Amino acid sequence: MSHVFHRNARVDPPMVVGGEGPYLLDAQGRRYLDASSGAAVSCLGHGHPVVIRAIEEQARRLAYAHTSFFTHEPMERLADWLAEAAPGDLTRVYFVSGGSEAVEAALKLGRQYFLEIGEPQRRHFIARRQSYHGNTLGALSVGGNLWRRAQFGPLLIEVSHVSPCYAYRGRHEGESDAEYCDRLIAELEQEILRLGPDTVIGFVAEPVVGATLGAVPPVPGYFRRVRELTDRYGILLILDEVMCGMGRTGTLFACEQEGVVPDLIALAKGLAGGYQPIGAVMVRQPLFEAIRDGTGFFQHGHTYMGHPIACAAALAVLQVIREEDLLGNVRRQGEALRSALVQHLGDHPHVGDIRGRGLLLGLELVQERASKRPFDPALKLHAAVKREAMARGLACYPMGGTVDGKQGDHVLLAPPFIIDAPHVAQIVDRLAEALEAALAACGETRMQAGAPGVRGFGGGEAF
Ligand code: PLP
Fold it and tell me: How many helices (H) and strands (E) does the chain have?
């Protein structure tokens, strides 16, 4: 009996014992192609010698020193590297240990910034429905996924949620990109005006929506319009690039492709590629200066922030990405994977949309393409796809609730940046097979609905 309190208390996951490049190995000797890098984490795959060496050397030199006493070289060098690579004047880096912590820090930094500059009345955040920003209470509050929020509702801070930029379902028939943007921006402006423009701290969004929508990029121009609007009202733009950042979409920062510089940007996941837990908030110079020249102290902090081994691992990951031109590979293999998906599954009666950017791709599954009607959530199709894919040696990241937090299913693909053509073919073949098997299993379940013991699928609660 396991003493681990697993994510799903009813499911014992297979025991993973090793990793090699884009593959994971379990205790039974099965190999899984890691087609989602976990949850868009393992950007270099597994066992990269350069990163392992950097971790070993750092562990020998200095494993830990509290940041209230010291700074250290790995943290300084990583901050230099990120500041040099980031767009605009995102010059300061506040280190944490993961994505939720990065979002929490960004929210609190936003609030403190306005206190420092004499605007204490600013206390509201606006975010988007169907977004995910983490599971700690502040991050969950800005997140817009109903299912994840529901039971913790009474504990969450009040946040306004507006429509995401989700062209597949949100754009009206015949509406152009510009008209769709007009409508979304008008909705956001209306909410700003309703709250009172001088009471709003920030607007929070993922440039490419990952876990909860399945790799949905914005329509062209959306974020430029958001930036104009937030600038007009003196509101901070907080971009959550925890999933889509650090090269996943083909540029180091996803916002580079939108032509905007946010005030704060949250990073994690791919930052150290899973070799160490680390997150960061990058901050524009004026925000930093407001705190430096004001109280001088951001009233926040965690024991493990700026952990030397985590910083050394992140620096090694970023250097490998640059030295091996992995952003080029993300763009090339991203295009190859997308066209292979379109070729093999583009006409599938239950694949409604294939979308994404770089190596962050998503397929939305529908009962019927014409009406975009989702499957009955009770079928837990996403869980069946995950199970069938695992049975075929493919680890991908399906999720339910795509449409509104309850209905809808999608599959997220986010393979390591090191994949090549044979891996692309393997992903598509195995996914196509798993999808057929999952659909068949769901059909069976529907026929047996009401029969004793048939209640959806094992593993469905794992998401
Ligand atoms: N923000 C985004 C966009 C994410 O995708 C995630 C995790 O999936 C988080 C925040 C939370 O990160 P973590 O799980 O490291 O706390």
Answer: 14, 15
- 49-323: which CATH topology? Aspartate Aminotransferase; domain 2 (3.40.640)
355 burial via Cβ count (<10 Å: 0-12, 13-18, 19+) = buried
CATH of the domain spanning 16-34+325-448? 3.90.1150.10
pLDDT digits over 257-305, tens only?
A: 999 999 999 999 999 999 999 999 999 999 999 999 999 999 999 999 9
**pLDDT value at position 12?**
87
Q: Which residue's alpha carbon is at the smallest distance from atom 13 of ligand 1? A: 99
Alpha-carbon separation of residue 37 from 41, 68, 323, 348 (angstroms): 5, 34, 21, 25
Question: What pLDDT, on a 0 to 100 scale, did the predictor assign at position 448?
Answer: 37
176 Cα to the center of ligand 1, angstroms: 32
- Assess whether pLDDT exceeds 50 at residue 453: no
Cα–Cα distance between 402 and 210 in angstroms, integer?
A: 11
Q: How far is the CA of 300 from the centre of ligand 1 (A)?
A: 19
Tell me, yes or no, if the pTM score tops 0.85: yes
Q: What are phi and psi of 394, to 5 degrees?
A: -130, 120
Q: Give residue 64's pLDDT.
A: 98
Q: Longest Cα pair distance anywhere in the chain, in angstroms? A: 68
Of 185, 98, 177, 170, the closest CA to residue 139 belongs to: 98
pLDDT in tens, 393-437: 999 999 999 999 999 999 999 999 999 999 999 999 999 999 999
Q: Do the domains 16-34+325-448 and 49-323 sit in the same CATH topology, yes or no? A: no
Q: What's the rounded Cα separation, in Å, for the pair 431 and 413?
A: 10
| pLDDT exceeds cutoff 80 at 173 | yes
Ligand 1 pocket, 39 CB below 6 A?
Answer: yes
The residues spanned by each domain of the chain are: 16-34+325-448, 49-323
Q: Cβ distance 160 to 127 under 8 Å? A: yes
Ligand 1 pocket test: which of 243, 244, 248, 278 has the largest number of ligand atoms within 8 Å of its C-beta? 243
State in Å: Cα 275 to ligand 1 middle. Answer: 16
Cβ contact 267:102 at 8 Å? yes
99 Cα to the center of ligand 1, angstroms = 4
The dihedral region occupied by 288, where left means phi > 0, alpha psi between -120 and 50, and beta the remainder, is alpha
Cα separation, 372 vs 147, in Å, equals: 21
